[in-house]
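> forwarded from #structure-qc
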C-alpha cells in the first residue's frame, strides 16, 4: 500500500488475528488532546509538560499549572493520561533550573536529576498534577524522565505518592535502568521506554546531530536487546511497560516492540493511523520471529531489512 493509504488507515489497533494493542498518543500541550482523539488514541502515553514552564522567568504557580493539566485531563474522561514531570536541561534548558554552563549538557543535570535539586518546584508540579487529576475522571499516571537507577525511582515514587498520585512510574531512557530493570520495577508501578534518549545514550550518538546514521536508529540490535531485557523484567514483575519514543511511530518497528514485551505504544497523533496499519499487517508470532532475527543482526540496517522480510 502507498503511504497516503496507510496514513488514512481506519482499522483498530490490533494484529491481523484480532489481538488488540494499547495505542496512546504523545502530546506537548492540552491543545493537542483533540487531535489525539481524532486520530483514534485510546489515551495519552506521554504528556510532555515543558510547555508550561518555557515562557516565564520563574516556575509557574500551582494554580497556573493545575489549569493547564486540567485542560488536557478533562478531554480524557475514563481514559489513561501519563504525565511526565518536567524534563528541563540539555536540549530544553530553563534559566531557573539549569543555571550552569555544562560541557556535555546531555550528560549533565537534566530531567529528574535537575528537578530533584529544586524540591519546591518538583513538589508544586506534583501537587498541580494531583489536584487536576482529582477534578477530572481521567486515569492519571505520572512518570519521571531521566531516571538512572532504582534509588531514584523509589525516591520519585515516594514524592509522587505523597502528593496523592495513584500510579507512579519512571522512564527508561538511560541504559542503566534496563540493566537493573528488576530493581526498578520493584520500586514503582510501571516503566515507559524513551527510545530517543535510550538510543542516544546506549550508542553514544548525540540525538541533535545529523548524519550519525545507524548509531541513531532504534532498529540497532543493541537497542532491541535492551528493550527485550525490559520486556522480560516487566513480565516477571507483572507490570506495564510502555514505549513512548519515536520508535513506536515506525509502523514496522511497532509490532516488534510489542513482541519484545512492551504492553503499550505511544506516538505522535499523526503517526497513529500508520502504526495501526503496521500492526494489522502481521501477528504477534510473526513479529516475534522478526524480533529474534533483528536481535541477531550486526547493525540497524541489517536488523530492519531482515525484520521486514519476516513481518
Ligand atoms: C525519549 O527520549 O524517547 C522521549 C520520549 O523523551 P524526549 O524525546 O522528550 O526526550
Ligand atoms: Mg527523553
Amino acid at each position: 500500500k502507498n503511504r497516503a493509504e496507510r496514513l488514512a488507515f481506519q482499522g483498530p489497533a490490533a494484529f491481523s488475528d484480532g489481538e488488540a494493542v494499547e495505542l496512546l498518543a504523545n502530546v506537548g500541550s492540552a491543545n493537542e488532546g483533540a487531535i489525539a482523539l481524532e486520530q483514534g488514541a485510546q489515551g495519552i502515553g506521554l504528556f510532555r509538560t515543558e510547555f508550561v514552564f518555557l515562557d516565564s522567568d520563574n516556575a509557574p504557580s500551582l494554580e497556573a499549572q493545575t489549569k493547564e493539566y486540567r485542560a488536557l485531563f478533562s478531554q480524557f474522561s475514563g481514559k489513561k493520561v501519563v504525565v511526565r514531570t518536567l524534563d528541563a536541561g540539555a536540549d530544553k534548558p530553563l534559566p531557573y533550573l539549569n543555571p550552569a554552563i555544562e560541557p556535555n549538557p546531555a550528560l549533565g543535570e537534566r530531567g529528574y536529576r535537575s528537578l530533584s535539586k529544586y524540591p519546591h518546584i518538583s513538589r508544586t508540579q506534583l501537587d498541580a498534577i494531583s489536584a487536576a487529576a482529582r477534578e477530572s475522571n481521567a486515569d492519571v499516571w505520572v512518570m519521571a524522565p531521566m531516571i538512572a537507577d532504582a534509588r531514584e525511582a523509589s525516591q520519585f515514587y515516594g514524592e509522587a505518592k505523597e502528593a496523592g498520585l495513584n500510579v507512579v512510574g519512571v522512564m527508561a531512557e538511560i541504559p542503566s535502568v534496563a540493566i537493573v530493570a528488576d530493581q526498578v520495577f520493584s520500586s514503582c508501578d510501571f516503566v515507559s521506554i524513551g527510545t530517543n534518549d535510550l538510543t542516544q545514550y546506549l550508542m553514544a550518538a548525540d540525538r541533535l546531530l545529523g548524519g550519525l546514521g545507524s548509531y541513531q536508529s532504534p532498529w540497532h540490535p543493541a537497542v532491541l536487546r535492551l528493550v527485550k531485557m525490559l520486556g522480560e523484567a516487566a513480565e516477571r514483575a507483572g507490570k506495564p511497560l510502555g514505549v513512548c519514543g519515536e520508535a513506536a511511530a515506525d509502523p514496522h518497528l511497532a509490532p516488534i516492540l510489542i513482541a519484545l514485551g512492551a504492553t503499550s505504544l505511544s506516538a505522535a497523533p499523526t503517526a497513529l493511523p500508520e502504526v495501526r496499519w503496521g500492526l494489522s499487517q502481521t501477528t504477534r508470532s510473526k513479529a516475534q520471529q522478526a524480533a529474534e532475527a533483528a536481535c541477531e543482526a550486526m547493525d540497524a540496517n541489517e536488523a530492519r531489512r531482515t525484520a521486514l522480510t519476516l513481518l
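QC bot note: The chain has a mean pLDDT of 96. The first strand starts at residue 22 and ends at 27.
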